[in-house]
Design goal:
The chain is an alpha/beta fold. The protein is built from 18 helices and eleven strands. The strands form two sheets. A seven-stranded mixed β-sheet has the order 1-10-9-8-11-3-2, sandwiched between helices. A four-stranded parallel β-sheet has the order 6-5-4-7, sandwiched between helices. Strand 4, helix 7 and strand 5 form a beta-alpha-beta unit. The longest helix has 21 residues. The N and C termini lie far apart (40 Å).
Length: 405
């Protein structure tokens, strides 16, 4: 870990490689509006689909000195507790659909699979992945929804509550030693040995198609925001880092839709700031160590090779923050101090926590042009996906917060 990250305070750096202008054609092979329309057309037919709320945090906006602060609340997405429900499950659908099309010459719809019209073709297919919790839950749910099998790998620091939530969808859960990146490698090894299909939310050389579908599923969030806001556009967007999938998906969709990217700031934990360090180096780099942070969904040491180019060109700045800023943001949301009372999980509030930290530093504000006229969007990417940890941090269960909202 570099000395500035080891100091334990929030850090910020601008992106000198950021480009302006329209969304580059070169990125459309990874993420595009055309592919996003297909993802939206399928996902919007799934049972339980509805756009998640876009909540105005007016009290916090006033306190931070910005015109508008919008919080996209993903805690209720398909009952899975996070935005990840959009990505992993969509990639499972695309995998099964492609297999069936190769055999029959016709691609089935999501409804065809959900209703069991191809049960005999998919029941013996096994999908697998490594996860910090939310992605594995989505893959397991997708496998259950569309009729195939799942095996999910979790590393040694993933809480038992997260592992149990994955198993509740019929998945076989395997715990591995090491950190998230170690579990990614073990899932890949086991898949090759057993003939399973990896549904990973991170890409690496030679493995890009499935992560592209995962990311394209995430674009549904951005499309919902655009439809709700109409002609109004956010000037600034603060997005969680991790491997970069969420950040790249939202950045790309807004960039191509609006013709120019808003000012995007990517936020990571100090202990797992692979995107921050990649920006510093001007190329993708990995960070090592135990990556220990309460932001479990962001405890990733290696950037996604297809997400990074989009962020390297489209993000305006990168931040890394300590866990205490996240705890404070969770309590602030739950208390109603920010506006309506909201349940935000440890990874879910990272973008908001980064915004709060940045607003306290005049130099950082100036670097991204954040002022009293700015309209800011953050993605509340998860709710209480670990209920015990949420209660420990906030002081009361999520059900009490929601009851008083």
């Amino acid at each position: 870990m570099s000395p500035d990250l080891a100091a334990g305070q929030a850090v910020f750096q601008s992106n000198p490689a950021r480009t302006g202008g329209p969304y580059p054609d070169a990125f459309k092979a990874t993420l595009s509006l055309a592919a996003a329309r297909e993802a939206f057309s399928q996902i919007s037919t799934w049972k339980g689909y509805r756009p998640t709320p876009l909540v105005s945090l007016d009290r916090l906006a006033d306190g931070l000195g910005v015109a508008k602060l919008l919080y996209k609340q993903e805690a209720g997405r398909f009952g899975l507790g996070s935005f990840k429900a959009l990505g992993g499950a969509y990639a499972v659908f695309r995998l099964l659909s492609d297999r069936i099309e190769a055999e029959t010459g016709a691609a089935p719809s999501a409804a065809d699979l959900i209703e069991g019209r191809h049960a005999e073709r998919v029941r013996d297919i096994t999908v697998t992945c490594a996860t910090d919790g939310n992605h594995g839950r989505s893959v397991a749910w997708g496998a259950s929804l569309f009729g195939c099998q799942s095996v999910i790998f979790v590393h040694e620091t993933v809480s038992q509550a997260r592992a149990d939530a994955i198993a509740s969808f019929g998945a076989r859960v395997i715990r591995t030693p090491g950190n998230y990146d170690d579990s990614v490698r073990e899932a890949d090894r086991a898949a090759k040995a057993s003939g399973w299909s990896v549904i990973s939310d991170t890409s690496y050389p030679g493995y890009v198609d499935v992560p592209r579908n995962v990311m394209q599923g995430y674009s549904v969030m951005a499309e919902e925001v655009i439809r709700e806001l109409g002609p109004t556009r956010p000037t600034h967007v603060f997005l969680q880092g991790g491997v970069g999938g969420l950040a790249a998906a939202v950045t790309a969709h807004l960039w191509e839709s609006y013709g120019a990217a808003p000012t995007v700031v990517v936020v990571e934990p100090l202990t797992a700031a692979c995107l921050f360090e990649s920006n510093r180096a001007g190329r993708p780099v990995a960070v090592t160590g135990d990556l220990d942070t309460i932001m479990a969904g962001l405890a990733c040491g290696e950037p996604s090779v297809i997400a990074w180019p989009i962020l390297a060109s489209g993000a305006a700045a990168f931040m890394a923050i300590p866990d205490d800023t996240v705890r404070a943001a969770m309590r602030r949301l739950a208390s109603g101090e920010a506006g309506p009372r909201l349940v935000g999980g440890e990874s879910g509030v990272a973008g908001l926590a980064g915004l709060i930290e940045l607003c306290g530093n005049a130099e950082w504000r100036a670097a991204i042009g954040l002022d009293a006229h700015s309209s800011v969007l953050v993605i509340g990417s998860e709710g209480d996906t670990d209920p015990a940890l949420y209660r420990e941090i906030v002081g009361l269960p999520a059900t009490d917060v929601e009851a008083d909202a």
